[in-house]
Write the structure tokens for this entry.
Amino acid sequence: METSQSTDPCTQAAAGVPPSCPDTACDLVTVPTRQGLEAVDILRRGVGDAVGPVLHDDGGGTLGFLVPPGTAAAWDMPGSTCTETDGQGLRLSPEPPVEGSDWLLPPGDADLATDPAVLRAALGEAARLIEVADNCR
């Protein structure tokens, strides 16, 4: 069986290698809460373990999706931000890594990081659903 040696999360996903965050680092994609909740619903309706741990910032109105390290280098989704951690700060543990935040989907319930390509598609679909809903008013 051939396995991918690439550390690029998009290349790994295309090769069928499940995305993961080592215990030392994950990148974090941050989106507005409304779009993030829609994306979580879309991802959870998908096949398999499509969504990894998700943080909710109670005061700031954002959701943060943990994605494999290296994702930030190629992240270009409008309306979202991807932050590199380079092994600094954000770690998978049952306790929220930032004061004032809480896990929407904790690491114990979702052990793998969210696949960046799948997340990008879900965020795009969520944005379109929100636009349609807002235009129906």
Observations:
- The chain is about 30% helix and 20% strand.
- The mean pLDDT is 78.
